Amino acid sequence: MGGFYDEVIASNGVYKFYSDGEWKETTSSRTVKILNPSTNEAVYQVQACTRDEVDTIFDAAKAAQPGWAKTPLWKRADYMHKVAALMKENAQPMANALVKEIAKPAKDALTEVIRSGDLISYTGEEGLRRLGEGKMLVSDSYPGQDRSKICLSQKVPLGVILCIPPFNYPVNLAVSKIAPALMAGNTVVLKPPTQGAASATMMCQAFHKAGLPKGVLNVATGKGSEIGDYLTTHPKVNCVSFTGGDTGISICKKGGMTPYQMELGGKDACIVCADADIDLAAKNIVKGGYSYSGQRCTAVKVVLAAEEIADELVAKVKKGVEGLSVGMPEDDAAITPVISESSANFIEGLVRDAEAKNATFVTPYKREKNLIWPTLIDNVTADMRIAWEEPFGPVMPIIRVKKIQDAIDHCNSNNLALQGCLFTKDINLAIRLSDAMSSGTIQVNAAPARGPDHFPFQGFRDSGIGSQGIQNSLEMMVKVKTTVLNLDQPSYTVG
Q: Record's InterPro entries (predicted)?
């Protein structure tokens, strides 16, 4: 692998956890296996931290936070730039791990690491600008008050931030939480996903090598089913930033007054109007629906097509789907195995339900273990599960609508409302439809997408709490503190 990552891995090949500036092995000697989705065989192992070790990790983060908060903003930004440079210089081994543990195509894996370095660096610059600003108010700006008080407000850290990224972007969505938290003066405990834990742990080595003070960043590895609740309800947690699925709702219900930043998945609807550029719509549906085998929260997950153009659209999407390569991530195939057997089984359940209810299979459904061929399903109706549930796989349902209002109603009836997109040549119609679609972000004439990473990113209803994107995350990671100066009142009149 190379010297840069040597201290991350124990002599027995198990990835260590990170606490108080040191890479450590668990006292329990227990490990968690990470399966390669392409083979269902173990490819990595990480430490299974005990609850006592979780306590120690939080103790380190809590102890380090006051000193880190006093570190000048410019110095925090310098650390971010060092981390970004180290990530890019040592990107390939991390990308190789992404290929093996989450079956991400090789080219996309390397792109994720480089993009993550850019995000960290940009966060350093944006943090300097935004966190350095304060506000002053004078009391006589309010009716009935004289000029006896001056109020100074500033942004101060929340404390210890628990960051939990998902399997599909274990590096990028980790740093999108870690970098704003650190720039804001917080310390961090990272809980990587099981699938993705090796690459996420390797990413943290860049922070270690950049020389961050002990305890500023810490990593707890293990099964979420064993330490998840203990982490999210820990008394030393001052904020939880989570990306994932229904687990996030459970976290919120158990966590009391802890601030949350939640992104919980979506059933991103694509509305294609009768006047749309059909070639453009078809191209974006294929790209948006099948990239990384549909395992993205921003993937197109249901197409709502006007009846007048549905036949033409389906034919062009079919042509695009048939051009997708299917195979292993090492070969940069467009469609690679989904993350696990249980995920593949869930996807198949949605497919079989649609099949039993007489949906039209434009391309045949085919599966070999975790590898599912790209499937296009037409004439989907509202009584089918796939019309509402998120497959997180390379399966695309198309619903034909007589009126665009029917498409809006379907979109707004789903409890998942992360992103959506629409295709029309009429800018006035585009604005009206965007206003009517109750989702966090609406793309006009393009597939849903998270980036650029400084854009706001949020979901409505069960798709999230709060807003992400670098600027919004920085604001989320702080609280406002005010200092009021009470002025002596002169016994004389000036002027």
A: Ald_DH/histidinol_DH, Ald_DH_C, Ald_DH_CS_CYS, Ald_DH_CS_GLU, Ald_DH_N, Aldehyde_DH_dom, ALDH-related_metabolic_enz
Q: Supply the range of the domain harboring residue 170.
A: 3-264+463-480
469-479 pLDDT per residue, tens: 999 999 999 99
- How many structural domains does the chain have? 2
pTM: 0.94
pLDDT tens-digit series, residues 274-304: 999 999 999 999 999 999 999 999 999 999 9
**Residue 449 within any structural domain of the chain:** no
Residues 203 and 282 in one domain: no
278 occurs within a structural domain = yes
Compute how many other C-beta atoms are within 10 angstroms of the C-beta atom of residue 74.
Answer: 11
Q: Please tell me whether residues 17 and 52 are part of one structural domain.
A: yes
Count of Cβ atoms closer than 10 Å to residue 238 Cβ:
21
Q: Locate 75 and state its tokens.
A: 């110095």
89 is catalytic: no
Range 422-429 contact pairs with CB under 8 angstroms and sequence separation of 24 or more: 422/270, 422/271, 422/272, 422/273, 423/270, 423/271, 423/272, 423/273, 423/276, 423/277, 423/280, 423/281, 423/284, 424/273, 424/275, 424/276, 425/275, 425/276, 425/277, 426/273, 426/275, 429/273, 429/275
Cβ pair 374, 276 in contact under 8 A:
no
Residues 6+ apart with CB under 8 A from 208: 18, 21, 23, 217
